[in-house]
Design a protein that fits this description.
This protein is α+β, with helices and mostly antiparallel strands. The protein has a single domain, classed as Beta Barrel (OB fold (Dihydrolipoamide Acetyltransferase, E2P)). The chain has a 5-stranded mixed barrel. It has a two-stranded antiparallel sheet with strand order 1-2. A hairpin with a 2-residue loop joins strand 1 and strand 2. It is globular and about 40 Å long. About 5% of the residues have low confidence. It binds calcium ion.
């Protein structure tokens, strides 16, 4: 009986987390969270490599906040003692304000991944917003911080 209660709790938590998220598209495919793929790209791909990222991690710190762009250091395995799984996440506030945030908050991001030797983390996830251009095809992205969605304000 205890097991069943625990199981139903787990199922409801998981369902809540998934139903609230918009779909993260990669061409025709619906992406699932791909932290492991992103961590592998980060360590194996060359600068300027491009991929599609749907990540879930925790905010370590705000690296900078200027010219309308907020830069986060995000840890993808949520173990703050390891740093080889971190990426820089950049959000343009032109596409909607972020909720209040602080270190330790959960951050989910759907956008473009790029290996970037200028980044302190060596890798960036950006383009976390809808596509403002009709002619230029690009998948929509978004950002979610402790459950609050941003990036899709049109
Ligand atoms: Ca870590």
């Amino acid at each position: 009986m205890k097991f069943l209660i625990l199981l139903s709790l787990l199922v409801s938590v998981t369902a809540f987390a998934n139903t609230d998220l918009p779909t993260c598209k990669n061409k025709m495919e619906d992406l699932q969270i791909n932290n492991e793929q992103v961590i592998e790209w980060r360590s194996t791909q060359k600068p300027k490599f491009l991929g599609r990222a749907f990540i879930q991690g925790v905010i370590v710190s705000e690296i900078e906040n200027r010219q309308g762009h907020v830069h986060f250091e995000v840890d993808l395995d949520k173990d703050l003692s390891t740093t080889n799984d971190r990426v820089e996440v950049i959000y343009n506030i032109e596409f909607g304000n972020l909720p209040d945030y602080r270190a330790g908050d959960e951050l989910i991001a759907c956008g473009d991944f790029i290996v970037d030797s200028w980044s302190p983390m060596g890798a960036v996830v950006h383009w976390l917003h809808y596509n403002p251009k009709v002619k230029n095809k690009h998948e929509d992205g978004f950002i979610v911080i402790h459950g609050e969605l941003a990036g899709l304000n049109k």
